Input
Amino acid sequence: MTSCPCRFDDRRNDGAHPTTARHLPLRPLWLCRACAAPWPRAPARLTLLREYADDRVALLIHLAGLLHEATTQLYTLNPHDAPEPAQLFARSLGWARSRSTS
Output
């Protein structure tokens, strides 16, 4: 995978954190609107983790819905060249699973 050219410390002119709109998916291609990399990239993931910091289950449910939507749209666009299911899972939902602390 290519790395996202967006910087983690990217700021708007007023010094506030960047808006989530910068890293929303471009549907039905499921690319980042900011950098055209497969969505979600690190900046979008960090935003989602912040937004759902107190409710990991809600984050996983939200991401599962997006995975379903992305799968449907990507396979409708090009059924012969869509990402493999395991790739889509890792990209859309797998990254957000809690890590074992042992």
About this structure: Confidence is low (pLDDT under 50) at residues 7-20. The chain has three helices and two strands. Strands lie at 25-26, 31-32.
